[in-house]
């Protein structure tokens, strides 16, 4: 929804720029040393030149700083610079160089089975004679280096059993309403809650590619331990991103070290070949981490069958990816027909039954109704008119999860 996009940009823009490039969170700290390559030679910065764009090659092992590399589970560094794929290319034969560390996918590497895999492309460091380049992983000897496998990154544990939350934008009484409804967590589609504090856990979000900045990534790390990915990238007017865009940027979100939720697709999360399916396939191929699946769901059938339709979808997505589920937006709305919204009896019955099933489902970690405010154009589906005045829907949601 375009109103939410405007909100996300405003909330993110209050973060002061100029904090510098976000530091990589080490999965493990390795002491600096040589990387042995094919033919008994070492990975070397040509001419020991620390200038951006200097080629990385194989050279006779000599113990100099040009061959002293640190692998920290996310990046590979020598001479104060990062191992980098020139122009962030994903093509076979792309030149490998050193460059100022910037946290992009072109500089993200993991080690597996003696291979160094660039997670921005899913391709391997490869030796073509003395030249080092990027190439599709083959398992051949020219892609084998003296590196130790990167252990799984340590991420914060899953949240406690308290599941119920709310999505919200700013409105009079927000703080009181969050408390009165009994929400254990909330989010606002933005990177911070500086202007929207409440007595519950705040979970930040990276809305789209424009929000992926060093300042915003530093800010979300200060907000908590869990980060929500892109908002409806499959929908025009929302994040509206390609799968490749999202995959290329994902290493920067992962580098925060936070527990990380998938991009939240608007629909089709269980569809083979759909947006989320292609993203999850690409993440596996590139060695990227996704800790839970984030979903949105809106039903246009206002009958007693609605809760079963909703939970059937949630379970189908869980079964497809085998990961915990967060439902960060859900409700009953008919976007193309009439009536657009359910009546009071229909919405309260749906909230009562859907929350009962969400609470009982062991694979659902958290859920959030759309949305907390019942003001202006959200009065038909919102939960609270002010800090202490719930709608009928708000009363039903307040009773949930107790």
From TrEMBL:
It comes from the Bacteria. Keywords: Hydrolase, Signal. Residues 1-29 form the signal peptide. The keyword Calcium does not apply. SMART domains: RICIN. PROSITE patterns: RICIN_B_LECTIN. InterPro entries: ASL1 (IPR053183), Asl1_glyco_hydro_catalytic (IPR024655), GH (IPR017853), Ricin_B-like_lectins (IPR035992), Ricin_B_lectin (IPR000772). Pfam families: Glyco_hydro_cc, Ricin_B_lectin. GO terms for molecular function: hydrolase activity. Residues 29-148 form the Ricin B lectin domain. SUPFAM superfamilies: (Trans)glycosidases, Ricin B-like lectins. This is Glycosyl hydrolase. It comes from Paractinoplanes pyxinae.
């Amino acid at each position: 929804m375009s109103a939410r996009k405007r909100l996300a940009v405003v909330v993110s823009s209050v973060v002061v720029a100029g904090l510098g490039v976000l530091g990589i969170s080490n999965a493990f700290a390795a002491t600096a040393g040589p990387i042995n390559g094919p033919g008994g030679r070492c990975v070397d910065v040509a001419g020991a030149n620390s200038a951006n764009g200097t080629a990385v090659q194989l050279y006779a092992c000599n113990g100099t700083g040009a061959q002293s590399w640190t692998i920290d589970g996310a990046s590979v560094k020598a001479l104060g610079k990062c191992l980098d794929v020139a122009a962030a290319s994903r093509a076979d034969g792309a030149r490998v160089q050193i460059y100022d560390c910037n946290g992009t996918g072109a500089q993200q590497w993991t080690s597996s089975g003696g291979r160094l895999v660039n997670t921005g492309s899913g391709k391997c460091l490869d030796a073509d004679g003395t030249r080092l380049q990027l190439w599709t992983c083959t398992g051949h000897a020219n892609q084998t280096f003296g590196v130790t496998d990167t252990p799984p990154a340590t991420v914060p544990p899953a949240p406690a059993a308290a599941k119920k939350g709310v999505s919200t934008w700013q409105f009079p009484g927000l703080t009181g309403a969050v408390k009165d409804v009994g929400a254990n967590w909330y989010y606002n589609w933005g990177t911070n809650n500086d202007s929207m504090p409440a007595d519950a856990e705040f979970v930040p979000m990276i809305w789209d590619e424009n929000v992926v900045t060093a300042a915003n990534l530093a800010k979300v790390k200060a907000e908590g331990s869990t980060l929500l990915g892109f908002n409806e990238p499959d929908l025009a007017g929302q994040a509206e991103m390609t799968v490749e865009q999202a995959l290329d940027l994902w290493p920067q979100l992962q580098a925060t070290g936070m527990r990380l939720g998938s991009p939240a697709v608007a629909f089709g999360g269980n569809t083979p070949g759909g947006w989320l399916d292609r993203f999850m396939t690409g993440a596996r191929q590139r060695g990227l981490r996704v800790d839970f699946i984030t979903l949105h769901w809106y039903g246009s059938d206002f009958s007693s069958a609605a809760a079963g339709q909703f939970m059937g979808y949630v379970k189908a997505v869980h079964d497809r990816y085998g990961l915990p589920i967060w439902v960060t937006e859900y409700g009953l709305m008919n976007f193309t027909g009439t009536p657009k919204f359910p009546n009071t009896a229909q919405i309260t019955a749906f909230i009562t039954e859907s929350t009962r099933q969400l609470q009982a489902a062991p694979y659902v970690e958290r859920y959030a109704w759309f949305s907390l405010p019942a003001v202006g154009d959200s009065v038909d589906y919102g939960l609270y008119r002010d800090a202490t005045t719930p709608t009928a829907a708000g009363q039903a949601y307040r009773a949930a999860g107790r």
